[in-house]
Write a structure and sequence with these properties.
The complex is a heterodimer of chains A (431) and B (272). By secondary structure, chain A is mainly α. Chain A contains 20 helices and no strands. Chain A has three domains: 119 residues, no CATH class; 84 residues, Tetratricopeptide repeat domain (Serine Threonine Protein Phosphatase 5, Tetratricopeptide repeat); 174 residues, Alpha Horseshoe (Serine Threonine Protein Phosphatase 5, Tetratricopeptide repeat), CATH 1.25.40. Chain A is globular. The two termini of chain A are 20 Å apart. The relative contact order of chain A is 0.07. Chain B is of the alpha/beta class. In chain B, 56% of the residues lie in helices and 9% in strands. Chain B has 14 helices and five strands. The two termini of chain B are 34 Å apart. Classes of the chains: A mainly alpha (431), B alpha/beta (272). At the A-B interface, α1, α2, α3, α8 and α10 of A face α4, β5, α5, α6 and α7 of B.
Amino acid sequence: MRAKRMTPPVRRTTRRWRTPPAITHGTEAFEGAGILDEIRGPLGLLLWQSLRDVSLWASFPPEEREEIFVAGAEENRLAAVRAAEVDVQVEPPLMTIVRMVGAPGSARPETVAMACQHIAHWADGQGHSGTGIAFAQAAAMALPGDASYAYAVGRLARRRAEYARAETWFRRAVALARQTGDWTSYALAFSGLGNLYAQRGNVPAARRFHVRALRAARRHSLRQIQGAALHDLFVIAAGAAGDEDPERYARAAFEAYGQDHPRLPALAHDLAYHWILRGHFEPALSTFQALLPHMTRLDERLVVLANVARAAAGAGERKLFEETWDEVWDGIARSDSLENGAQVLLELGHGAATLGEPERAERAAERALQVATGRGETRVQAAAEALLESVRRARGARTRAVEVPHPASGGDAEAFAADLVRTLNAALVSR
Amino acid sequence: MKIGARPLLVLHGDETFRERVRKVAGREYTFQAVPDWSSLEEAVRESPPSALVVVNPYEDHPGRGGPSPSLRSLLVEFPSTAVFAAMEITPDRTEDLRTLGKWGVVQVIAISHDDTPHALVQRFRASQGRPLKALLEQVLPPETPGRARAIVDAAAEVVAVGGHGRDLARSLHLSRRTLLRWCERAELPPPRKLLAWMRILLAAELLDDPGRTVLSVAHACGYSSDSGLRRVTQKFVGSSPTELRRRGAFARSSKSFLELMGKYRKGAGAIP
């Protein structure tokens, strides 16, 4: 990927082109109110004030920014930063904003936008997603012509399940990127839209956007994005009942990614999941187990563990299933806003159903349904409902609720799994 | 529907700040300083939906455990009103800020920081139609496309200040033809119809304010009598304002609006 530039993007076209407006507020009462809810105390107040300062500053054209703040506002804000005992990671960007308050007429939009983006990353890493999106948006407003900032807001909004807001920012990123020739953001924004629609269960639209991302990536030799687009198309083809061979996309993505690509574990994960659905539990289990050391974040680890549980159930390894079941429930109890929480619970439910434990399956499916409904994830919701129904029907008939797919010929899968496990282990060693 | 000049009602003990707001009001707003909470309530009752209210949340209630209860009563009686809290922001007021958000204050003006004339004008403009937009956010279904939301948002802003189709196009930086095309692609009614619906929703929002009579809502929306408002609500929602109010005006009207949006979506039936 290219390095972040320090100059504003130049519009390359003279054609009149309207950039779609984006939704700039969520459900918060007033601008940035979510920050006060997420981060209590002086730091929260300071961040809220800084956000308001940037938004206000960015809402003026550059030539009218001189008289926005009262004289002496910079000194007061500086004292507040010192008194708030700010995290060392946030202090430099906050100081940039303080300097902007002192000299609003001469502050550079690129510097202010980077400071906001820095705070957004920090907040997101701390689990304050509302604060993260507010600052990402402030960055996008400070540099309204930069597609990469618009794309960043879309990504954060999608992760928070604010789908409408995410869509408007992705579409804005597409339009801006086309105007400025920022083809990386252009392809990424299409990819973002594809993932957004896939998350909402609109598979045809998702496929269409991923194909557009792939075309853009090919046209501009963006190999990593090309791999990502192929990967996404694999996921869609694997989920659809069409004639397409999903593993063809997976192999192409594997080749485009190469050995050290950070998305390789994600591809291995999706492929192993596909094997579970096709009844190839052994290659799936070995791949998921090779993936576990790559997962450092709790939410990612829980997803893999839930899949280990399901694959272990399919492979008849009850003890391993029991161990992972407990570990996943403990993890879910510790984190209440997991992005993939519904999917994690659903996998556990499937595993329990495969092992003929309807009470456990029902418990997991009910919780999955509840979480998916709350987040508007229609695909997971439908899957959870289907699982609940099949478990209840099986209980009523006093039979085992086992729906283990009959494996097709697993030769290709086993060879591919061996390749993947070898590559994943090598990547771990080279790190 | 005609809406007159936008009243800017101010209840604030700081004379310098009041004077600054008066200067900012200029031709865009009709400045009116009110002496106390009860006078403010009276003034809000008679004001059009485009009115802005700027208050000191601690007025007549200095340092007695949070913002004044009179402000809370005002926002309970008139939740559709755009109220700004103009106050000094100090670390001990963090909880008060959260309380103001819960009560429904739409924006905060930080005294001695961003209460310059420039900033005030910008904040007033940015809060245009905010209460209606907040209500719409709650009722629009999650599958509503982002583009449609953005247009509906802009329409709510335009209607709150008595604007028309050309103002909507201008607010989105589009030509009227492009706006029409965007509405089609977003599976929305054409701009004129959309704005007519927004006016109904705005009237419905006001009808839900416990502090307003049907006649005052009609006046606030630019009708000379309640019969004008009745004719419009009958045509669009099939109920009189009184019936609407009894059954939850906004809930009922927004349901009809969503049904209409559903028809447009089925008609379009395309992949976004």
